[in-house]
Write a structure and sequence with these properties.
mainly alpha; 126 residues; two-stranded antiparallel sheet
Length: 126
């Protein structure tokens, strides 16, 4: 186990490999957690089940059990585009902005039409 907080538990890569090896040996996930020293009542059945499913999926990945959150988190890096790709991207952006402007114009028109149809009543006049 690497880290524990109120919301999550981060397991080490070695523990993940050990867990998968024990699963392959035919042990149940709860039994593996108990043998590793975890209190299964505190961890909970759902968390153990989710961890077991996640480990099985990780075992099938090319990257294996490595934590990809550090590599895939944050803002995506902008990639270099060829000039024709850049033109196509910018044309797409312009078309999208035109659609947004048209939608705002229609909303503005509808709002003006609604205020003309239902003018505000002057409460203070007699």
């Amino acid at each position: 186990m690497d880290k524990v907080s109120n919301k999550d538990i981060t397991y080490s890569e070695a523990y993940k490999q050990h867990f998968m090896h024990e699963l392959d040996q035919g042990k149940f996930p709860t039994q593996i957690f108990r043998e590793a020293g975890f209190d299964t009542q505190v961890v909970g059945k759902q968390r153990i089940k989710s961890f077991s499913n996640r480990i099985r999926k990780m075992a099938d990945r090319i990257e294996g059990f490595t934590d990809l959150r550090t590599q895939l988190s944050g803002r995506r890096q902008t990639k270099e585009r060829a000039p024709d790709e850049e033109i196509a991207y910018l044309q797409h952006q312009v078309a999208l902005q035109k659609q947004q402007i048209d939608a705002l114009k229609k909303m503005n028109f509808i709002n003006r039409k609604a205020t003309k149809a239902f003018p505000k009543k002057n409460i203070n006049s007699s």
